[in-house]
């Protein structure tokens, strides 16, 4: 007996991965350049925003989240929100001591 | 022989494991943020001593290795076993290259007597001890994950070679890929935090 769930798979073409790789390398070099020229307080924000964009590409394409059951992306969002909440609360505590 | 299989459950289990990994490194990132906030000058100066060139090279090596392992799944799905194994082999070689770079990087620090517990480092003050303690622990834990990922990929490659994993049944290849991407994902944050933000 064949189970349909196990058969349903999305095949991502090779070139999609190569495009994503090009974007990721470009973003890495942008991040390196941006942080070498001093932007003051904005440097940290810029580096982290770029890291966030890179992670989104890795999660969505490399880790197939864009094509998987929506349950996975929702769970990932949940974990990221949890981490963000813990980081925010900890920093609020330290910044206001 | 009829064997029961549930790919969705297998992948769900892998993701749940990855979440625990994210929380593990997430906790370390919080420790880093707080210590950085309390020792801004020491962290600023210590971060200047790390090589941006080696860090950038290692970032690009990991990004390419993530691409090759992702492409190996497409190769197996389209029944191209040879290309799949080749791409997995490239991934393993790139992972080893990352570790070799790490070895030289750490070796250079050790020669300058910078390592956890070093008396030379202790003389430089509390902030430096914290920065390098976190640097060695976090990049070391990450390197340990690289080694685990390499073994995982190698085991899966052997299974593919022996046709135990094939174009009909490749969820384990996908899971090893997921693990490898997680290692890449963590590095995407480690790299700017230690090498770029000075």
Fraction of residues in H or I helices of chain B: over 70%
Shape of chain A: flat
The N- to C-terminal Cα distance of chain B equals 60 Å
Give the proportion of residues in helices of chain A: over 70%
Strand content of chain B: under 5%
- Mean pLDDT over all positions of chain B: 94
Work out the number of β strands of chain A. Answer: 0
Average pLDDT taken over every residue of chain A:
88
Number of helical regions of chain A = 4
Which helices and strands occur, and which strands form pairs?
The complex is a heterodimer of chains A (97) and B (198).
Chain A: H1 4-7, H2 14-36, H3 42-62, H4 70-95
Helix pairs in contact in A: 2-3
Chain B: H1 7-38, H2 40-47, H3 52-77, H4 81-111, H5 119-123, H6 126-161, H7 171-196
Detailed description of the structure:
- The complex is a heterodimer of chains A (97) and B (198).
- Chain A has 97 residues and is mainly alpha-helical.
- Chain A has 2 domains: 1-66; 69-97.
- In chain A, 76% of the residues lie in helices and 0% in strands.
- Chain A is built from 4 helices and no strands.
- Chain A has helices at 4-7, 14-36, 42-62, 70-95.
- Chain A is flat.
- Chain A starts with a helix and ends with a helix.
- The mean pLDDT of chain A is 88.
- By secondary structure, chain B is an all-alpha fold.
- Chain B has one domain: Cytochrome c oxidase, subunit III, four-helix bundle (Four Helix Bundle (Hemerythrin (Met), subunit A), Up-down Bundle), CATH 1.20.120.
- The chains are: A mainly alpha (97), B mainly alpha (198).
């Amino acid at each position: 007996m064949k189970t349909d769930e196990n058969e349903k798979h999305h095949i991502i073409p090779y070139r999609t991965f190569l495009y994503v790789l090009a974007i990721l390398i470009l973003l890495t070099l942008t991040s390196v350049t941006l942080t070498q020229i001093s932007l003051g307080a904005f440097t940290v924000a810029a580096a982290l925003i770029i890291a966030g964009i890179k992670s989104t590409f890795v999660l969505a394409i490399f880790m197939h989240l864009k094509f998987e059951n929506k349950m996975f992306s929702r769970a990932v969002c949940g974990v990221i929100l949890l981490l963000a909440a813990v980081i925010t609360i900890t920093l609020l505590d330290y910044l206001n001591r | 022989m009829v064997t029961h299989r549930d790919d969705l459950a297998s992948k769900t289990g892998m993701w749940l494991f990855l979440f625990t990994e994210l929380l593990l490194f997430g906790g370390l990132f919080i420790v880093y943020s707080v210590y950085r906030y309390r020792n801004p000058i020491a962290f600023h100066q210590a971060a200047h001593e790390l090589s941006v060139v080696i860090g950038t090279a290692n970032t690009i090596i990991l990004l390419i290795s993530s691409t090759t392992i992702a492409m190996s799944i497409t190769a197996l799905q389209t029944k191209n076993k040879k290309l799949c194994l080749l791409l997995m082999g490239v991934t393993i070689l790139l992972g080893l290259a990352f570790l070799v770079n790490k070895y030289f990087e750490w070796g250079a620090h050790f020669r300058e007597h910078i390592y956890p517990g070093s008396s030379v480092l202790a003389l430089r003050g509390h902030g430096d001890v914290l920065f390098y303690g976190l640097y060695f622990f976090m990049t070391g834990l990450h390197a340990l994950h690289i080694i685990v990922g390499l073994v995982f990929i190698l085991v899966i490659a052997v299974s593919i070679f022996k046709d135990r994993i094939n174009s009909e049944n490749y969820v384990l290849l996908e899971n090893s890929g997921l693990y490898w991407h997680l290692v890449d994902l963590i590095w995407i944050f480690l790299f700017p935090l230690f090498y770029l933000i000075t």
